[in-house]
Amino acid sequence: MNKALSPITRRALLQKASALALSPTVAPMGLGLLGMANAAAETATDYKALVYVFLNGGNDCYNTVVPYDTDNYNRYLNARKGTASADGVYSGIAVVKSKLGPTLLGTRGLSSGQQMALNPTMTGLKSVFDAGRAAIVMNMGLLNRPTSLAEFRNRSVPLPPYMFSHTQTQLWYKGEGDMGWGGQVSDYFLQDNASAALTNINVGGDSGFLVGQQARGYQTTPAGPSAVAALTNGKVFGSAQCAQALQTLISQPSAHLIEDFYAAKTRNALDIRQAVVGAIGTSVSTKFATWFPSASGGNLAAQLQMVARLVEQGPALGMKRQVFIVSMGGFDNHDGLVENHPGLIKAVSDALTQFDNAMVALNMSHAVTAFTGSEFGRQLNNNGNGNDHGWGGHQFVVGGAVNGGCFLGQAPVTGLGHSLDAGGGRLLPTTATEQLSVELGRWFGASDSDLSAIFPNSQYFNLHDLGVFSRP
User: Fold this and answer.
1) Phi, psi at residue 416, to the nearest 5°?
2) What CATH number has the domain bearing residue 171?
3) At CB < 8 A and 24+ separation, what contacts does 106-109 make?
4) Structure pTM?
5) Per residue in 99-143, pLDDT tens?
6) What's the number of domains the chain is made of?
7) Containing domain of residue 232, as a range?
């Protein structure tokens, strides 16, 4: 009796196709199987891109999205207050309330009486939020099951491994498996793209997020794809003949299987680089330089500028679906929080604002969704000049398709000793990372059955209830 392929069977078929495609001698058959397997999964007719912005170190959510209503702010201040900063913006590690007025946000999605403001440095992202193209997912973190405080303390439900450790970064990228969820989602769309190699692009993050059954991450820098200098310059030790000999050496076919495989990979890499450089050029155009001022947003903005340049050319390169990752470090502020965090979070705000401006100007805002992640939030308690590792935190989702100008999920009470306090104001998450990932994957075009295979823990959560892409 014939049976429809289950998600697991389809994944196995994809894996077999990947193994076959690695061998140049059977590439046509391998690619044929790949196309057949993916055709059974998804078909994309439009262009969409996901952009993962990862903040390495564990971003302090309390000083990013700051409680503003009287009760929650007073509890926040009591846990963090101390010596005033030289500029008067901070008391201890708490933002002074009078400085939050310009970044006070609307209350859609919050409980009655709750108010939130962004860090005073984040005026750019406030404007995107107010324009309805940014939402804030409240108290999101790694969970294997919905978990109460009693269940956490008693260890009576399965908990994520590496609790409160930087190793949890890999769980944000990969969940329970060995492959990245960005790569796994992309697996279903490789046959729709003219270049499978350009489906997943790493501009400055962890390439593990982009690795699927077939999908692999293409590495580029904010300045563009790396080149073999000798081949680009056309000379080695001043000799054109030497450069030509080098190109022949590294790319010519060989009777030796391993040498031939390496040469084929090298030729493919050189061809891909030539295609990318041919599409985006070798220098930043005036419009991109205007949208991404060099003095604002730092290296993260430079990474997102490259993403924007690639997104603009995505349809011209024959791409239907693309996944990007960028990252920024410096958020592990056990001390120096007041000195370091405002500049860091300002760079995030400026970079995302510039990227949003570029997408709007390119008329691609509804086709591109950017979202942040960080391995954990941090504790509310002031440890002297910083704070320690936490659990749940707040994340941003930015794009024209986003249900913007609102808070998604459950905004927690701010303070110590409440029902979500896992110690020192460390938030027990009320939204699992997989809930956001599933909604992003669904918007991208993956089916619910595909997403269930990628995110096995998703069965334990109410999916699609965040409303990331629904509008009232």
Assistant:
1) -120, 145
2) 3.40.720
3) 106/130, 106/405, 106/406, 107/407, 108/405, 108/406, 108/407, 109/406, 109/407, 109/408, 109/411
4) 0.88
5) 999 999 999 999 999 999 999 999 999 999 999 999 999 999 999
6) 2
7) 224-282
